[in-house]
Amino acid sequence: MLEDDQKHILIVEDDLEICRLLDMFLRSKGYQISLSNNGIDGLSDIIRLQPDIVVLDIMMPGMNGIEVCKQSRQTYTGPIIMLTARVEEIDHLIGFDVGADDYVTKPFKPKELMARV
Fold first, then answer.
1. Is the whole-model pTM more than 0.85?
2. What is the arithmetic mean of pLDDT over 9-25?
3. CB 55 within 8 A of CB 11
4. Which residues on adjacent β-strands are paired with residue 32?
5. What is the set of domains in the chain, with CATH numbers?
6. Mean pLDDT of 14-42
7. What pLDDT, on a 0 to 100 scale, did the predictor assign at position 115?
8. Which residues contact 86 (CB under 8 A, 6 or more apart)?
9. How far is residue 109's CA from residue 60's CA, in Å, rounded to a whole number?
10. Is the dihedral angle over the CA atoms 41, 50, 47, 75 positive or is it negative?
């Protein structure tokens, strides 16, 4: 059960080590965390859970983060922060075009993500 002031973050990331790191770090800062390990489950969880913030990897099996972001914007209006190893400007612009609010480039420091959250 969420406390009134506790924010819920959904992390959609197929790299289990990154999931574990973000889960531990963000929980230590007082956030409730849910995890999805692929795009299809991630899209379902975004729609079902309506989290306060989504942290969304781009390159995932099943459905990539760009498609998840695009489809989720039909019902989800909260912020989406994209995680990506891709550094090309066009990749960021495509993400913004489908509804991403911000980008964090891998490798990243958890404190950088925290500042954006």
1. yes
2. 95
3. yes
4. 8
5. 8-112 (3.40.50.2300)
6. 95
7. 84
8. 58, 59, 105
9. 21
10. negative
Cα gap 56→99, rounded to integer Å: 12
More confidently predicted of 58 and 108: 58
**Looking at the DSSP assignment, which residues form a beta bridge with residue 12?**
36, 56
pLDDT at 18: 92
pLDDT of residue 4: 60
Give the pLDDT score at 1: 44
CA torsion 101-20-46-93 (nearest 10°) is: 30
- H-run or E-run covering 48: helix 39-49
Distance between CA atoms of 38 and 46, rounded to whole angstroms?
12
Q: Which long-range contacts (CB under 8 A, 24 or more apart) does 39-43 make?
A: 39/12, 39/63, 39/64, 39/65, 39/67, 39/68, 41/12, 42/10, 42/12, 42/68, 43/68, 43/71, 43/72
Residue with the larger pLDDT of the pair 90 and 22: 22
- Report DSSP letters for 79-114, one per residue: -EEEEES---HHHHHHHHHHT--EEEESS--HHHHH
| Token pair for 83 | 């995680």
Half-sphere exposure of 33 (CA within 13 A, CB side): 20
